[in-house]
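During the reporting period the student researcher (J.K.) took over the structure-prediction task from the postdoctoral fellow and processed the backlog of single-chain submissions. One of the processed entries is reproduced below for the supervisory committee.
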Amino acid sequence: MLARLRPYILLFVGLSIVYHANLRPVDSGDSLPASLLPLAILLDHTVTLDRFVPWLRAHVWYTNSVVDQAHGHFFSHFPIGGPLLATPLYLPVALFAPSHWDVASLVTLARILAKFAATTIAAMSAVLLLILLKRITTERWAWWLTIVYALGTETWSISSQALWQEGPGELAIIACFYCLERWTVDRATAGWLWLCGASAAMALIVRPTNSALALALVVALIAAKGNRKEHLRLWIPLAVGGLLVASYNLYVFQRPSGGYAMAILSGSTLTGVAGLLLSPGRGLLIYTPVAVFALCAFFPSAAVARVRHKPLLMTAALFIILELLTMAASIRWWGGYTWGPRLLTEIAPALIVLMAAGVAVMDRPWPRRAFATLALYSVLIQAEGAFFYPKGHWDAGPPSVDDAPGRLWDWRDNPIGRTLRGGLFWESYAIVGAAFTGGIPAARRRMREVNVSPYEQAQPAGAH
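J.K. obtained the following structure tokens:
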């Protein structure tokens, strides 16, 4: 048993080390409520942020934009599925964190714990993806594609760095894909389809836009000639998940879409698609160009894999298309202040699954060399996001990218170039070094000296 588990344990440990190597979270205001919710659940037995908000309002300028008030309590403006999934990872430390700690200390603790939780979830998703890929392609290619997923996509620069929705979303999506593949092989075992639906429901709870996954699953099941019982096994968990999300949103926000309404269908879909794929500011094919090899799944040489894994590949392909169109239709398709196409992070597992199906095309001399070249470039870009961002402060402009989204198409002044010129984010190493030599008080002094806060982010011009 240990011998069989050893490769997966080593993968998990190795990725955890890499994800932690920058010694800091690469986060934003969006992830602040998510980092605090597990502490609220464990210490106060509630999903409200009442303990934290008064202090946050006095010290963190963006508090009102990430917290909503309802029924006399304060709630996260964002979905709570991810924080719920991460709560058990807080438990070992939270047990030793006295409930009477001052809020400033708890907020600092939350930022640290959130990074560990995000790293753990991202590494777990890579391990589960490896197990799935071994069912689709050779072991050698399964390992290479897993490394590409873990280090060559936004999984590294986004999912592993803070408790955004993307990390838990990826884990739930991969679990859904795995269960679907197991059901395809053994349709007599009803449990796999129940688990597939439950995983898709978890993805929906984590992020409502993952309803695209539910639709893709239904279409794939119809194509697989699923019977009425099989459709019920898929739909019942999805319906329960959707009902839970809608009920919570109605209670807190008085609308089923919740506080995380992304102004879907309010923007130009064509502009969004072009920007999410090709712009130097957020383009998937600029930040993760190895993604183009997902098209290999549709070449004639991959016909055998397409037939053998039809439900899985159809679900993956439809999910990519639907998710891309959904995010492109958002009025803020670039995702605010962030590194790369953050809003497309959750299609990374689907892209890798399609690549695995296209190995027969890729495993030839020149496609293999092209794949290796683009994979290495993708890893370097994600490393820049982890170790350099937000140096250069491209998002803040001037003018701010949210005020002037046309800057996303500026090839001369783009995030990759300016962030690289801004240099390594060395402050985190200075702070950790101070902690080792002089303890927490020394680390706090060093943080003030280098103007770094565990809960703050740069305030844009004109913000109050």
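The committee noted the following: Residues 460-464 have pLDDT under 50 and may be disordered.
J.K. will present the remaining backlog at the next meeting.
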